[in-house]
Write a structure and sequence with these properties.
The complex is a heterodimer of chains A (about 110) and B (about 120). Helices cover about 0% and strands about 55% of the residues of chain A. Chain A has no helices and 11 strands. In chain A, strands 2, 4, 5, 9, 10 and 11 form a 6-stranded mixed sheet that branches. Chain A is globular and about 45 Å long. The mean pLDDT of chain A is about 95. With about 120 residues, chain B is mainly β. Chain B has no helices and 11 strands. The termini of chain B are far apart. The relative contact order of chain B is 0.33. The mean pLDDT of chain B is about 95. The chains are: A mainly beta (about 110), B mainly beta (about 120). Chains A and B meet through strand 4, strand 5 and strand 10 of A and strand 4, strand 5, strand 9 and strand 10 of B.
């Protein structure tokens, strides 16, 4: 089955700096890659996603890049703010008979210091 | 549109008991997926239901089961509870009509504590 590895497990940055979180996946059939943000005691919230026919997607301060050949994708947050502090999860889905199944990475605790 | 709702939000059960959790998806969403979240194992897929049929199943024992009703609401059941079943149980709803994966939107979760 699919396996998703996420790095780093913790990331500490100063306000205004950029943050990058990287994930690798094992199943070459995976074609959908969402990123979720989970604040303490809250539900995971979809912040951006990318499909395998696209190499990069941007939404204001957040961007995601995908390298299908290397089977890795990354989340980039620019001009970080204290409210970006949360746990971030990457995930992968392979479609086919697994449309509703997301395989998650272990999460990255991002701390943005004012 | 109203978001995904889950009931109850908190549950305390004793080992050996069984529990039923409920999830109401976003209106119009026919796919409901269930996940278990623990500090040690992270977010793990339990199963997915679409149009009242289980379409996918994760690697959990048979004590974990679910179902979906004609209005797309879903329930999951855990029988013979073990201490290790203590977790946050999240459901997510999606359009997922087929063809490719759609965005999944999570409910607030049910915090289950087994004593």
């Amino acid at each position: 089955g699919e396996n998703v590895e996420q790095h780093p497990s913790t990331l500490s940055v100063q306000e205004g700096d950029s943050a990058v979180i990287k994930c690798t996946y094992s199943d070459s059939a995976s074609n959908y890659f969402p990123w979720y943000k989970q604040e303490l005691g809250k539900r995971p919230q979809l912040i951006i996603d990318i499909r395998s026919n696209v190499g990069e997607k941007k939404d204001q301060r957040i961007a995601v890049t995908l390298n299908k050949t290397a089977k890795h994708f990354s989340l980039h947050i620019t001009e970080t703010q204290p409210e970006d502090s949360a746990v971030y999860f990457c995930a992968a889905s392979s479609g086919g008979t697994s449309y509703g199944k997301l395989t998650f990475g272990q999460g990255t605790i991002l701390t943005v210091h004012p | 549109k109203a978001g995904v709702t889950q009931t109850p939000r908190y549950l305390i059960k004793t080992r050996g008991q069984q529990v039923t959790l409920s999830c109401s998806p976003i209106s119009g969403h026919r796919s409901v997926s269930w996940y278990q979240q623990t500090p040690g194992q992270g977010l793990q897929f339990l199963f997915e239901y679409f149009s009242e049929t289980q379409r996918n199943k994760g690697n959990f024992p048979g004590r974990f089961s679910g179902r979906q009703f004609s209005n797309s609401r879903s329930e999951m059941n855990v029988s013979t509870l073990e201490l290790g079943d203590s977790a946050l149980y999240l459901c997510a709803s999606s359009l997922n009509r087929g063809g490719f994966s759609y965005e999944q939107y999570f409910g607030p979760g049910t915090r289950l504590t087994v004593t």
